[in-house]
Input
Amino acid sequence: MTVITKDYNEKMSSLCVNMHEVLRYLNGNEDNETLEIINSSLDELGSDFSYRVCYSVFPVCVENDRVVFPFKSVKSKDLAKCLKDCKSAVIFASTIGFGIDRMIKKHSLISPLKSVVFQAIGAERIECLCDTFCEDIKKEYGNITPRFSAGYGDLELSFQKDIFKVLQCSKNIGVSLNGNLLMSPTKSVTAIIGVKQ
Amino acid sequence: MNVLDYIKDNITYLDGGTGTMLQEKGLKSGEPTELWNISHKQDIIELHKSYFDAGSNIITTNTFGVNSLKYDDKTLNELIVSAVDNANTALKLSKNKQQKFIAFDLGPTGRLLKPLGDLDFEDAVEIFAENVRIANKLKIDLFVIETMNDSLETKAAVLAVKENSNLPVFVYNAYSENEKLMTGATPEVMVSMLEGLGVDVIGVNCSLGPNKLKNVIKRILNVSSVPIAFKPNAGLPEDINGKTVFNVSPEEFSAVIADTVKCGVGLVGGCCGTTPEYIKCLKEKTKDLKKIKETEKDITVVSSYMSAVTFSDSPILIGERINPTGKKRFKQALIENDIGYILNEGINQQEKGCHILDVNVGIPDIDEQEMLPKTVTALQEVCTVPLQIDTSNPVAMEKAMRIYNGKPMINSVNGKKESMEAIFPLAEKYGGVIVALTLDENGIPEKAEDRFSIAEKILKTAESYGISKKDIVFDTLAMTISTNKNSANETIKSLKMIREKLGCHTSLGVSNISFGLPKRDFVNGAFFAMALENGLSAAIMNPFSAEMMKSYKTYLLLRGKDENCLNYIEFAQNAEEMSVKDTKIKTDSSKDISLQYAIIKGLKADAGRITAERIKSENPLDIVNCDIIPALDNVGRDFENKKVFLPQLLMSAEASKSAFEVIKSEFCANNSTKCTVVIATVKGDIHDIGKNIVKLLLENYGFRVVDLGKDVPPCDILEAVLKEKAPVLGLSALMTTTVPAMEETIKIIHEKAPFCKVVVGGAVLNPEYAEKIGADKYSKDAMETVRFAEQFN
Output
């Protein structure tokens, strides 16, 4: 299977940060002080993003509560339900890079407020990247399912290991998996998208 | 023939891709290629042989993914032995007559190193070392460390090779489209670090096609004194009818690489998507070209993990503030392990324009060997400028240099035999630019000529360790003018002699000149200007000193180093705000406001300013009890009643923290009036934003907080609770997978420290779940934790 790597820096820098989403992640309301602090955080971060995605398309076969990929058969009722009308699936990994992680760390000992703000900005950016990528997949493959990640419902988080193996995320987009199955950079997402017939 | 001798005079051909070739032979997606060393021995031999047949001089063993994180000792050994055996068999079978070598391949561990990831630096070194020790006994010619996208992991791999083998080592990094490694290093950073570590070839491989990496190669050519290797992909992979196709043809690929050979690249080959055909074509395209000899670049450069600082015509400012000498508040921070305070000093100096930060944490009451590397790592997490490691303890120096990410400055060596014997071997092994003080066993000579002689002696000794003069910066020692009217003259004279006759760069701890005098800044500023005019390359100085900054900015202006005077104008416009005091006190608003108002509104700078004003005439305790605490409480209640939101709560908390900080720095007093609370994120969990918020609020309310950090094992938490006799322990967990660690911690606390109540919080928890795992209390947010802790006073 071919693993395709895409750089989304250009595309993502043209997409404005959605302030409503940032505020939602922040548990904040839309007042001037809060907006000002979000904006100053964005200024501090500048263009320190590295938006990258790698993905591959696999044939899938759903057998009762199992989903069979060429590299692994995985037991998950929820994933099986999600992919029931699909003959293939896109598995992808995405990241916005280490810039946000560094800012969160920098401020964690100095300004917890700012580290919370960067955390919210990071959450908005990675979701936006995933949405943008899914749009592209939709354009290419037509009818697709919502994205489904390891750890959702009854799909074991350990499925991350298999995803990392087949997509070679570390080599392709610089995302690595730690001993507790967490990703670095922290603002990274892996997911499965079913392609309907 | 030795491989290093061969590459000196010849264009050297490397091999091409492995994965894509093996997929054609049936390698399945996700199947580790290294397993084929045993299961498909013949295919691997064929693959290696096909590259030798195509003209490759150096082929790499199929061991990219072999490491002890993935395989047990026995399998690891078998895979390595058979991989090297396959390569040697191919070498014998190929009838081609070119010089042939076998490189043992070391790829990334797949795990990220601390602090960004969870792999310990020394563990990473050991993972690589295991492979190196096995391979070193086999028939190989060199080691290749490749496709590394993290500078620190690259360093760990190089150290593993250097410490376990005498064979040559080549290092290829994988750069992204922004011409940086994933974790931020630029080509200049990598060259400085890798040359410092003594690698034999520096290269670029994988990630992109030759065109997109051309500029990275150009940047490396500009600064590297060692041979350069280029091994790009055949462009990017595309899926065409279920087949992987790379979009750059052998012709196009070879044409771009041939151009880089003309500019000085000495070793060429391919990575993903390339085949023996690419190597053949590359060889054909470059057959009439001559290998260009590398030239020694006379550049003095230090680097952090993401930026390189070059000593050139423009003077370099080295911030001196991370140093406990004469600073009560800094000493207190060291003793209390208050790393946040130290980091703040770093960030503030960087924002003031320092190019490098000096780091000194030596006080008698702390273990410098532990504290120095810890501080260096922490500073590198938050500051982007390079560091100057400053200690007289060689063990602490080595520990800090070892984990340093980049090429550090080393402060210092001097003309004493003992000093040179301690420091030069470290610089030889780890790399670094050394500050050399012109003193020796007989002290500091009075005359410039004698200081110059010491400098010559130091250079000569350095050379015997293989340290070139570009990596030595001389400090001719500023001594106080108050006891010797000629001291400035001699210092400057020796500075000039060294700069002109030896061609070396120089550095001075400028402010020593005024020791014992009033208004020291006046003297320092003038002396700094004199020194700059006489060839000073770098100054260790206080960037908050207005006089020093004036000398620096005006020097740049008058010496034609400030295009359109822009730099100076900007400086002058802000100059009124500057004060000679250590910390600049900013104002958020010009209004006459109260401290309570400033805290409620979250005006951080105002809160600090007003407090500084008021402690001149008021009792600090009154300010805390009558203003800070009531204001905080006001906001806290509003938060509990959902009248204000999290950002406002935090703004107020930070404003009151800045008020506390003023009180602390004036009185060295602790504002802790309540009990001790131990807090930690449990083992396995690395999320600490929530925990840090709890810490901030608890501290503001007067609790003494012992923060154990994240990923903390239960036994460490128990130890801290017992040691501190803490009545309250706060635990945080964000993931379902780490709740068992929380449960285990609670169990052991209840068993061995029954006096302690455990309060838990975090995204995955709720009151029921908290009760199930035995917690005494579930808190939905930081305020609730404060309220809970208040019951124990």
Chain A touches chain B through 59 residues (CB under 8 Å). Residues 4-196 of chain A form a domain with the NADH Oxidase fold (CATH 3.40.109.40). The two ends of chain A are 20 Å apart (CA to CA). Chain A has a mean pLDDT of 93.
